[in-house]
Design a protein that fits this description.
The complex is a heterodimer of chains A (381) and B (518). With 381 residues, chain A is mainly α. Chain A is built from 14 helices and 5 strands. The two termini of chain A are 44 Å apart. Chain B has 16 helices and 21 strands. The chains are: A mainly alpha (381), B alpha/beta (518).
C-alpha cells in the first residue's frame, strides 16, 4: 500500500521478543471476546452482564474455579500427548482413543482386584491408586506406541492409524460400560461402575494430585527439549528426519518413543477425567464428550508453539471460557453451543495472530524516482 | 568463443535496470546500493561467488524478494513487482536453480500450470496447439505427453524455459542453469539460449559462477563480490583471469596431493557390494576395493551411476543387498549409522541442505548433529551447551565460515559457508574413514580450494578418504587411487600415476570396460 512517499509492506520479523509474544496472545484473546459479543446478543442480560457471567463463573466462583482447574488439568495432559510427537514432526490425532484406553485401564485395576466396593479392598488404597495411574499411562502408551510402531517400521501414516483407533476405543468403552458390559454400573444406566471413595484421587482443597503431575510435566518436558540429548534428537527428527538419520538418530526408536510418551500422557488424561473429578468417579454415559474435548489439546499445543509451560495458561483459558460460557448459556438463555463457538473464535484469533507474530507491517520510504542512471559501460581492469 | 553484439547496435536504453538496490537479511547485507542493467537482445552473464548477491538481485528482478532501497526500471519505466505475478505479467521469466516442476504430471500440464489464462476449466487441447506452435517457433523438440520424472535434468530445464516463454517471457533469468547438467547438456543449453537471443529477440540473464559458461555464451558480464558490483565488461574484452580477479579479489592456488607420505595399514575392505536405489533397482552392482589409512580413493563418475548408493551403504544409511564391508578388521556391513559414527566413519553427503544440516537450527545445534551421541558432550544425558558453543566457534574460525554468529540459523548461510561448516563439523570428529560425496559441488573457486585442502589435511593425518566427484580435475589432483564408476560398477581401480583424464573420462562414459581392474 502506498501513502505519499511512504509504503506499507508486510515483511518477516527477524527476531521476536518475549513481551511481543505475550502481547499478541493478549490481543488475540481480547479480539475473540469482542467478536463473541455477537453470540451474546440474544442474552437475557446486557452485553457486559454476559461477559461478567462467563468470567465470574470461570475464574471467581469457588465452584467454577475448581471446575476450571479440573478441566485445565485434563486439557494439559491432552496437550502434552499431542505436543511430544509434534516436536518429532508426527501428528498424534489419537488423543480420544488413548484417553479412553487410559480410563479403561484405570478402572480395570479395581475390577481385577475385585475392589469395586470399599469393603472388599485387600490392598492399601494408596497402592491401588498408584497402580491405576500406572495402568492408565501404560495403556495410553501402548495404544500410542502401536501407531508409532506402524509408522516407524512400515511407514503407515500415523494420522490415519490414530484416527481409526479412536473409533475402535470409543466402541470398546461402550461395550465395557453399557448394559451387560463387564464395567457396567450397579444401577445399569449405561454407565460404568462408580469408584469406591478410598480409590478416588486424593484432593487437596478440592484440587486433585494430578494437578501437580500436570504442572511438573510441563517443566520437565520443556527441560527435556531444551537441555537433554534426547530432546535434541526429538527436535532434530522433527525439523529434518533425513538429517537426523544422517546424524545417527534411529527413526524407528524415536517414532516409537514419542508415541509411547504422548500416549502415556493421554492415558493420564483419561485417569484424571474419570477418577479425579468429584461428581464423576466413573466412566459416564457421555464419555464421548471428553473425547471431543481432548482435541483442544491439539489446538493449545499448536498455539503454545510446542512449549509445554506456554500451554499452561492457554489450557486454563480454554477450560475457563468453555465452562463459563456453558454456565452463561444456562443462566442467560444463550443459544446452544455458545461454549464451543467461543473456543472456536479463540482458536481463529490465535491462529490469525500468528501471521502478525511472524510478519510485521513496516513503513518504507519510497526511493526517489529521479536517480542518476548508472553508466552503461564501465570496463575496469 | 565470446559473443559480440552486432556492431550496428549502439548501447541504448536498457530493457531492464535496477538502480541503488539495497537488501538486508538478518545479520547480512546481501546487496549494497547495486546498479545493474541489461540491454535488449543480449545474453548478460551475472558472475560471482556463492553469497555475492547474484541470486538475491535476480529474485528482486523477478519480484520474489522486495528490495529495502532502490527501484526497478523496465524499458525506462519505473516498475514495482509485488510478486512474481507482476514480473511475469511484464514479460519476465525465471528458471530457478532447483527444478520446480510436478514430476508426476506431463510436460504439457507443467507448462500450462499457473498460466494466468488457465482458470477454472483446463483446455489442454487448445493449450497443446499453442505450446506446439511455440516449440516450432523456437525449434524445440520435447514430447509434450511425457511425464516429467521420465526426463533428464537437461530436458526438465527446457521444460521450465518453455514454461517461461509460454507465460510470455521476453526476458529470461536463468539461475545457475548448468549446475546439474552433464557437459553435452550444457552445450545444448548454451546453443539453444543463443538461438533464442539471436533469432527471437529474447533477452537472457545468465547467473553463474562458472567462468567457461560466461566466456562461451555471454555478450556482457556483470561481476558481483560481497553484495556489490565490482565490474561491468564486454565478454569479448575479458579473459578468465581478469574475471577471477574481479570475482575473488585475488588469485587462488589449488593444492594437490603430496604423494611422498607413507600410506598406513589397510582400513577398509569392500567386497562385491550391491544395493538398490530408492526406486528398487539395483544401482550398485558388486563393487570391491580396499583402502589404507592416509590414502584417497577418487570415485569418478557422472551422477546416477551408483555413487550415492555406495556412499550411503558405507555410511549405514542404506542396506547392502549383498557383499561385505570390513572396517578396521570388523564386519560393519549391518551396523547402524550411529555405530559407524562411533567407530570413526565420517560422512559428508552431497545434499547439504536436505541431509547434512537442519535449516531451522542454529549453527551450534547443527554441530550437535555429530555430537549428540558423544559422551564428552552429553554428561548425564544433558547437552553440553557451553562445550558445543566453543566447538562451533572454533569451527567457524578455523574453516572461515562467514556467519554473523554461532547462533545464526543454518538457513542463513550461503552454500559454500554451509559446506565449510559441515566439513569442519565432520572433520572435528577426526574420522578414520571420511566419505566425501560431491564435496565442492556448487562452491565458488575459493571455497573449492579450501575444501580440497582440508580433505588433503585429513589424509595427511592418516584418514582414509573416499572422494566421490564428477569433477575429473578434482579427482586427479587429490587421489592416490582413481576408480571410474559406470552403471554401478567400478570400471577399474587405477593408481593415480596410471590415470590420465582421457582414460578416466572414457571409462566414466562407459568405454573401455575391461581396462586394468585391480
Amino acid at each position: 500500500m502506498r501513502l505519499g512517499r511512504y509504503e506499507l509492506t508486510l515483511e518477516p520479523r527477524p527476531a521476536v521478543s518475549a513481551v511481543y509474544t505475550v502481547l499478541t496472545a493478549v490481543v488475540a484473546i481480547l479480539l475473540a471476546l469482542a467478536l463473541s459479543s455477537f453470540l451474546f446478543l440474544s442474552a437475557d442480560a446486557s452485553l457486559l452482564g454476559a461477559y461478567r457471567a462467563v468470567f465470574s463463573y470461570a475464574f471467581f466462583n469457588p465452584r467454577g474455579i475448581l471446575a476450571t482447574v479440573q478441566r485445565a488439568i485434563y486439557l494439559l495432559f491432552c496437550t502434552y500427548a499431542f505436543l511430544v510427537p509434534l516436536r518429532a514432526g508426527l501428528w498424534n490425532i489419537g488423543l480420544p482413543g488413548q484417553v479412553f484406553a487410559g480410563a479403561l485401564a484405570a478402572f480395570a485395576v479395581p475390577f481385577v482386584l475385585r475392589a469395586q466396593e470399599a469393603q472388599t479392598l485387600a490392598l492399601a488404597p494408596g497402592l491401588v491408586i498408584l497402580l491405576m495411574v500406572a495402568a492408565a499411562a501404560a495403556a495410553g502408551a501402548m495404544l500410542g506406541g502401536f501407531a508409532g510402531l506402524l509408522r516407524a517400521r512400515l511407514q503407515v501414516n500415523e494420522i490415519l492409524v490414530t484416527m481409526m483407533l479412536n473409533s475402535i476405543l470409543f466402541w470398546l468403552v461402550a461395550y465395557m460400560i453399557k448394559e451387560g458390559g463387564p464395567f457396567m454400573g450397579a444401577t445399569a444406566e449405561g454407565e460404568g461402575f462408580t469408584l469406591p471413595a478410598p480409590l478416588t484421587a486424593p484432593l487437596l482443597r478440592g484440587v486433585p494430585f494430578t494437578a501437580a503431575l500436570a504442572l511438573g510435566a510441563a517443566v520437565l518436558l520443556d527441560l527435556l527439549f531444551a537441555k537433554t540429548a534426547l530432546g535434541y534428537r526429538i527436535r532434530a527428527f522433527g525439523e529434518n528426519p533425513a538429517a537426523a538419520r544422517y546424524g545417527g538418530i534411529s527413526p524407528v526408536a524415536l517414532s516409537l518413543l514419542v508415541f509411547l510418551l504422548g500416549g502415556a500422557f493421554a492415558g493420564l488424561a483419561g485417569y484424571h477425567a474419570f477418577t479425579a473429578v468429584p461428581g464423576v468417579y466413573k466412566i459416564p454415559g457421555n464419555y464421548g464428550f471428553y473425547g471431543d474435548l481432548a482435541f483442544y489439546g491439539i489446538i493449545s499445543a499448536l498455539i503454545a508453539r510446542g512449549s509445554a509451560v506456554g500451554a499452561v495458561p492457554i489450557a486454563v483459558l480454554f477450560a475457563g471460557l468453555s465452562l463459563g460460557a456453558r454456565f452463561a448459556q444456562g443462566a442467560l438463555h444463550l443459544p446452544f453451543g455458545v461454549d464451543y463457538a467461543l473456543l472456536g473464535l479463540l482458536m481463529m484469533t490465535f491462529i490469525a495472530s500468528h501471521a502478525l507474530y511472524q510478519f510485521r507491517l513496516a513503513w518504507r520510504r519510497v526511493p526517489s524516482e529521479v536517480l542518476q542512471p548508472a553508466p552503461t559501460e564501465l570496463p575496469e581492469g | 568463443m565470446p559473443l559480440t553484439l552486432p556492431a550496428d547496435r549502439a548501447p541504448t536504453e536498457p530493457i531492464l535496470a535496477a538502480r541503488g538496490i539495497t537488501k538486508r537479511f538478518p545479520g547480512v547485507l546481501a546487496l549494497d546500493h547495486v546498479d545493474f542493467e541489461v540491454q535488449a537482445g543480449e545474453v548478460h552473464a551475472v558472475l560471482g561467488q556463492n553469497g555475492a548477491g547474484k541470486t538475491t538481485l535476480m529474485n528482486i528482478l523477478f519480484g520474489l524478494v522486495q528490495p529495502d532501497e532502490g527501484a526497478l526500471y523496465l524499458r525506462g519505466q519505473r516498475v514495482h513487482f509485488r510478486s512474481p505475478h507482476d514480473a511475469i505479467a511484464q514479460g519476465i521469466g525465471m528458471v530457478h536453480q532447483t527444478r520446480r516442476l510436478v514430476a508426476a504430471h506431463t510436460v504439457l500440464e507443467n507448462i500450462v500450470l499457473g498460466h494466468p489464462r488457465v482458470r477454472g476449466f483446463l483446455n489442454l487441447r487448445g493449450a497443446r496447439r499453442e505450446v506446439e506452435a511455440l516449440c516450432n517457433r523456437y525449434g524445440f523438440t520435447v514430447d509434450l505427453g511425457a511425464r516429467v520424472w521420465q526426463l533428464s535434468e537437461g530436458e526438465r530445464q527446457w521444460v521450465e524455459i518453455l514454461k517461461a516463454l509460454y507465460g510470455g517471457a521476453k526476458i529470461l533469468i536463468l539461475d545457475e542453469p548448468t549446475s546439474v547438467l552433464t557437459p553435452p547438456e550444457v552445450k545444448t543449453l548454451l546453443a539453444g539460449l543463443q538461438a533464442l537471443v539471436r533469432d527471437r529477440g529474447v533477452t537472457v540473464l545468465l547467473v553463474t559462477h562458472k567462468l567457461p559458461v560466461v566466456m562461451a555464451a555471454s555478450h556482457r558480464v556483470t561481476v558481483f563480490r560481497s553484495g556489490s558490483v565490482v565490474a561491468r565488461l564486454r565478454t569479448g574484452e575479458a579473459t578468465e583471469e581478469i574475471l577471477v580477479q574481479h570475482m575473488i579479489g585475488r588469485e587462488v592456488a589449488f593444492r594437490t596431493a603430496d604423494r611422498s607420505t607413507e600410506t598406513g595399514r589397510p582400513l577398509l575392505h569392500v567386497e562385491q557390494l550391491s544395493a538398490f536405489n530408492d526406486r528398487g533397482l539395483l544401482a550398485l552392482r558388486g563393487v570391491s576395493f580396499s583402502l589404507r589409512a592416509g590414502e584417497v580413493l577418487g570415485v569418478a563418475g557422472v551422477t546416477g551411476n551408483g555413487q550415492e548408493e555406495l556412499a550411503q551403504v558405507l555410511a549405514g544409511l542404506r542396506p547392502a543387498t549383498s557383499g561385505k564391508v570390513r572396517f578396521d578388521d570388523r564386519d560393519v556391513t549391518h551396523l547402524s549409522p550411529l555405530e559407524r559414527w562411533r567407530m570413526g566413519v565420517g560422512y559428508i553427503p552431497a545434499e547439504r541442505i536436505e541431509v547434512a544440516s537442519i535449516a531451522a537450527f542454529s549453527l551450534v545445534e547443527n554441530t550437535a548433529l555429530n555430537y549428540h551421541f558423544d559422551p564428552a558432550f552429553t554428561p548425564r544425558g544433558l547437552l553440553d551447551d557451553a562445550g558445543l558453543d566453543q566447538l562451533t566457534r572454533r569451527i567457524l574460525s578455523a574453516y572461515n565460515v562467514k556467519a554473523p554468529h554461532q547462533y545464526a540459523r543454518a538457513r542463513h548461510l550461503s552454500g559454500g559457508n554451509l559446506q565449510k561448516l559441515i566439513l569442519g563439523r565432520v572433520l572435528s570428529r577426526r574420522p578414520r574413514l571420511l566419505i566425501a560425496h560431491l564435496p565442492t559441488q556448487g562452491l565458488d573457486v575459493e571455497a573449492t580450494a579450501f575444501v580440497r585442502a582440508k580433505l588433503l589435511d585429513a589424509r595427511a593425518e592418516g584418514a582414509a578418504v573416499l572422494l566421490i566427484s564428477e569433477d575429473l580435475d578434482e579427482i586427479l589432483s587429490l587421489s592416490d587411487w582413481v576408480a571410474p564408476i559406470y552403471e554401478g560398477r567400478f570400471v577399474a581401480v587405477l593408481l593415480r600415476e596410471q590415470a590420465d583424464s582421457e582414460t578416466v573420462g572414457a571409462m566414466m562414459a562407459g568405454l573401455q570396460k575391461e581396462a586394468g581392474a585391480r
